[in-house]
Every structure is written in structure tokens, then in C-alpha cells.
Amino acid sequence: MLPYLTKLIKKLAPKVGAKVVVEPEWGIAAQIIYSNGVVRSLRMYSLDLNHIASSDIARDKDYAKFFMAKRGFPVAEGQTVFEDNWAKTVKSNRTISYGIKYAKSLGYPVIVKPNSKSQGNGVCLVGSEKELKNALQEVFKVDKIAIIERYLPGRDYRIVVLDGEIISAYERMALSVVGDGKSSILALLKRKQKSFVLQERDTRINFEDKRIKIKLQQQSYSFKTVLPKNKKISEKLKGHKTSEETRLKLSEQKKGNKNPQYGKPISEIAKRKMSQSRSKEKHWNWKGGKIKIICKVCGKERYAHRCHVKKRGNKFCSHRCNAIWGVIHSRKSDTKIERLVEDELIRRNIPYTKQVPLLGITVVDFLLSNNIIIYADGDYWHNLPHVKTKNINQNYMLTFYGYKVFRFWEKDIKKSAKNCIDKINL
């Protein structure tokens, strides 16, 4: 069943000569293509009059691939796999065990990546079932959806186009080291990192990235291995990121323009920083780096700088979780109609939980067994047009995920809370 807003758009679009393309599996993402070529996006109940839906779809790799394929662009063959708890929420069997079977059907090696991350974060090339399990477990630490794709070998070119004009073009080169017959791979990588500093590049190699270790293991190497002289290893050693500033500099160099810093002397501050880096000295104000933060709403783990935690609190992983926490804890007491509903539930010995956040879109007043939800809606606030639209969308999303929603008006609850609860088939 399609969400209310998607069904409404499909019904209205032909009246203005527009075509609607709906992502078929979940039905919550769509694109509206007008006769003049303008494309608007829809995701859940966000319509992109201010381009929110467009950015949401662009960040979601699975949706982005679907709509790009619909516009005629070639995309890599792949399938989404869900973290166990999220698979239960969306009632899907596509967990890690499904991913193993799917990867086998594609044939190793395959690409594993988070669905909502960018700049190569979490992307991994795996060549066996064991590596696939490890890669998916790492992805599920930062995202509840992973994508398994067919591996397409080739050269990696990045081209940025704005209004039909190429503003940047470069080839993304794999991280590599060349042996000298004396140094270990770890020493060679650290030496390369220092060369990046000397070149005033802001590229940073993440030595803790497990993908580097996987790549080395695939070639029977480790960080302690001493490479023979002139022996080069690469195969796209992941774990390094290049910022947009560096990419633009590289793009200018490929056009034949010299880096504006070319030939300039190194400042004393830069020399001091490089000296500290070589001697492994820490800055005088070093507090130990980032610390682990666990979101108070969803329990997701993340890392934040100590100064940010001290100044801002940073108790939540997102603005959405922050808002949910605020809704739950902002009120000092229940409303009168909520107390009436609660008294009736207690009288009937019906177990319930109050103020429960669900799906990141709502906080329900009462959650009963068998996925039954009760809302006690005030006559004034919930009759406002924008609130009524929001309530309709929430009802459709909750129904889509298997919940039974009951909304009772203030006047009906005050008249007889007993009659309201009688309408629920418990």
C-alpha cells in the first residue's frame, strides 16, 4: 500500500501533464517529471519545494540508483541488506544471511558499502564469505542499510558538472607504497603520510581502517611485512580520504595550472607542526582525541570531540533524536484527556507504555500489545490544517509498518473514555 502523499501525487500529476515514477519496493520515494523537463522529488512526506526530498534521495544510494536507472544511466547491479533490528521493523528477510547468498550469485569479489554515507566511507571490496560478514558488521555500526554490488574494475574518474559546464575533473588514484627492502609496510605508509604534509596536502591515512588490513591480508601481507626493493602494492588500499580542496588543486594541476603554493617557502608554524608529527609529540592542549557518545534515544554510537561534548552536550546522534527527546521530556504532566485514557486502561488491566518514539517520525501517546497505538488528540491543535496533514501521513507510515492506529478526539474522550476504548479490538 502506497503512503497517502504518494497516492495523492499519482492522482494529481496527470492533471498538470506530469509523470510520476515511484520506487516500487517501499513506495516512499518518487520523482515528478513535468512536461518542460523539470524534475521534483518526493520522499515519505517531504516534497522538494525547498529541495529537501532531492537531497534525501541523493544521500540514499539505493534510491539514487533507481532513479538514475530510470533516466537511462547505467548503474552497478546490487541489492540492499538490512541490519537485524531494522529488518524486523520493515518486515524483510534481507539480513546478513541473505547477503551471503546474493554475493555468491553475483560472484566474488563484490563491493560492500553503507547506504547513506559519502566520500568512500565504509566502502570495501571483499573476496570471500568471511570478509563479507566482517564488512557488513562494520557497515551496520554506522548505517542500518548496506548495499552489496557487483565489482566493476576500471579507472575512477570524478567529473563535477554545473549547468552543463565541467568545473572540475580528476582521476582518483589508489593509495600505494613501494618497498625499499628495509622498511615495513606500516613504516612506508607513515612515510607517505609525512610526504602529504610536506606537500601541504590535507589527505590523511586512517591506519585503524580495517579495509587496509583486509587488502593486505588478501595479498598475504601485514603491516609488519618488509617489502622487497621496488615492489609496489596498491590494489586500491582504502582508508584515505581527500578533501574537496585537495581535489580542486589536483584538478587545476591536470589542467596545467600550478598550485598557488608552488615554490613558496614553508612557514615556521608548518615546520614546527611537521617536527611535532615526526617526533610524535602531542599539542600542549591535547585531551586524548574523540570520545564515544551513545545516543539517549536510539542508542547509536558515535564519536565527538571532547570540547563539543562539554560545550554543546552532544547527547544525541541527530536533530531528529534531539527533537524526540524534547517531546518526551518537555511536559511536566500528562494532559487531562491522556489521564482519562490511562485511567480506563488501568481499570481494564490493559498493559501499555506511554510516550514511545517510533520510526523516527512520531511519539505515540500509548503503545499497547499487538502493535496497537492510541493517540489522544486535542480538538484545537489537531484540527489545524498542517497538523491534520502530518497526522494522516503518520497514520499511513505506521500502518505500512504493521501498526494499528486509533486516534480519539478530546470531545469523545471527555464524553466517555470507556466508549473510545471499546472501539479497540483487543
Q: Which features does this protein show?
A:
5 domains; Dna Ligase, domain 1; four-stranded antiparallel beta sheet; alpha+beta; single chain; 426 residues
Written description of the protein model:
It is a single chain. This protein has helices at about 5-10, 50-60, 60-70, 85-90, 95-105, 130-140, 185-200, 210-220, 245-255, 270-280, 305-310, 320-330, 335-345, 385-400, 410-415, 415-420, and strands spanning about 20, 30-35, 40-45, 45, 80, 110-115, 125, 145-150, 155-160, 165-170, 175-180, 205, 230-235, 240, 290-295, 300-305, 350-360, 360-370, 370-375, 405-410. It is of the alpha+beta class. Strand 2 (about 30-35) and strand 3 form a beta hairpin. Helix 5 (about 95-105) crosses helix 6 (about 130-140). It is elongated and about 85 Å long. The protein folds into 5 domains: about 5-70, no CATH class; about 80-150, ATP-grasp fold, A domain (Dna Ligase, domain 1, 2-Layer Sandwich), CATH 3.30.1490.20; about 155-280, no CATH class; about 290-325, no CATH class; about 330-420, 3-Layer(aba) Sandwich (Endonuclease, Chain A), CATH 3.40.960. The chain has 16 helices and 20 strands.
Largest sheet, spatial ordering of strands? 1-2-3-4
Tell me, rounded to a whole number, the average pLDDT.
Answer: 79
> Measured on Cα atoms, how large is the radius of gyration?
27 Å
* Distance from first to last alpha carbon: 24 Å
What's the structural domain tally?
5
Relative strand content:
15-25%
Which blocks of ≥5 consecutive residues have pLDDT under 50?
237-242
Structural class, please? alpha+beta
Helix content: 25-40%
Structural shape? elongated
Number of helices: 16
Number of strands: 20
Report on the biggest sheet. 4 strands, antiparallel
Oligomer: single chain
